[in-house]
Design goal:
Layout lengths: L9 E6 L7 H13 L5 E6 L1 H4 L7 H18 L7 E4 L4 H11 L4 H5 L2 H9 L9 H14 L5 E4 L4 H18 L22 E4 L28 H9 L17 H9 L3 H13 L5 H24 L3 H33 L12
Parallel strand pairs: 1-2, 2-3, 4-5
Helix pairs in contact: 3-12, 4-7, 4-13, 7-8, 9-12, 10-12
The protein binds tryptophan.
């Protein structure tokens, strides 16, 4: 491994292709990814293998959603000239590393992972989920560490997975690379560890409320504003937002869903403060007015995305996305194979170097 070659610090993060991206994804993580493209070498992974954990019988849907998510990313501003898009199922080193990690993680530790528990509950999986379902959390540790990133920008719900990833990285380095268990996380690589211990970076709004005003914004709950929504759809969804307020002179609750949107999407901080003061005081500021401003701010954010997205529609768009994915996966495999070989060397499994034809 050439740890000595100077490189930009790396980012790895990803999404499971389950449908279109929405504003919750934007404020939770996507916005960070786009901002950090210059300062970091970025790898963005489409977790299409994970999509099979809950939709094993829906390969067509998963394929469609895979292309959709790539288009959403490109439309949102992920730049294929600077960042690398990674298709999980085309990186065999991830699956291989997942096996080694699975043996470093106690079974009960995986099953106690709070994000898995919440998902089992939310998706009503009961006790009839597949073996592959909890395994995805182990796989996610490999998704990340195979790229040896310093930073993992994610939404709040993913932090438990990143914590497990950090644990398995440390344990690998202690067990196979001679790193002292007392070592600080940032010293693992300088001390000869194969994996850095990456940090999660949570977006400025960890949990964005949906347009029902109650639950977290989520496609399956039908309370989402999608990155592809038109000005008209945005207006409609925002004006239906329930605030419980009757008149303009009634003091409003600035922690209601509408004001969470005010703070998340209106750019001018002075204007945000002014709206908050007037609303809280019941100073002639109607919900309708605030909603119009919020809808305009969201439309301003999404307008350029809609334009970039339009250029990717149709057959030509699919072709372009597939070309990008192929070229980028070749690059991602070069990095992933190098990491895997370093891990196998540490495990005394270096029986021969292979090369991948892609
Ligand atoms: N589990 C993540 C989600 O559903 C997607 C994901 C897969 C991911 N592998 C990853 C995120 C690695 C960050 C890093 O959103």
């Amino acid at each position: 491994m050439n740890n000595l070659v100077e490189r930009r610090p790396r980012i790895l993060t990803g999404d499971t292709p389950t449908g279109r991206l929405h504003l919750g994804h934007w404020v939770g993580s996507l916005e960070n990814r786009i901002r950090l493209q210059d300062d970091y070498e970025c790898f963005f992974l489409i977790a299409n293998m994970h999509a099979f954990t809950t939709r094993v019988d829906k390969p067509e849907d998963i394929r469609r959603d895979t292309l959709e998510i790539a288009k959403d990313w490109l439309a949102a501003g992920i730049d294929p000239e600077r960042s690398t898009l990674v298709l999980q199922t085309e990186i065999p080193a991830i699956a291989e590393l997942s096996w080694y990690f699975a043996m470093l993680l106690p079974f009960n530790r995986v099953m106690r992972n709070p994000t898995l528990k919440t998902e089992i509950e939310l998706k009503g999986l009961g006790d009839h989920y597949s073996f592959g379902f909890p395994l995805y959390a182990v796989g996610q540790c490999a998704d990340i560490l195979i790229f040896r990133p310093e930073l993992v920008p994610v939404g709040e719900d993913q932090v438990a997975h990143i914590e497990m990833c950090r644990e398995v990285g440390r344990r690998f380095n202690w067990t196979y690379a001679g790193v002292d268990p007392q070592a600080q996380d940032e010293d693992h690589v300088p001390l000869g560890g194969v994996f850095p211990i990456p940090r999660a970076l949570v977006g400025r709004v960890g949990r964005l409320v949906g347009t029902d005003g109650k639950s977290k914004m989520s496609k399956s709950l039908g309370n989402a504003i999608f990155l592809t929504d038109t000005a008209k759809e945005i207006k409609k969804k925002i004006s239906a937002l329930y605030t419980g307020r009757q008149t303009m002179t009634e003091p409003g609750d600035i922690n209601n869903a509408l004001f969470q949107y005010v703070r998340a999407f209106i750019k001018n901080p002075a204007r945000v403060a002014e709206l908050e003061t007037k609303y809280a005081a019941g100073d002639n500021l109607g919900d309708g007015h605030v909603k119009a401003e919020v809808a305009a701010a969201i439309d301003e954010l999404l307008g350029p995305m809609r334009e970039r997205r339009a250029a990717l529609e149709g057959e030509g768009g699919d072709k372009r996305v597939l070309e990008i994915l192929r070229a980028h996966c070749a690059k991602a495999n070069a990095v992933a194979e190098e990491t895997l070989y370093a891990a196998k060397q540490a495990m005394k499994l270096d029986f021969g170097r292979r090369s991948l034809l892609f």
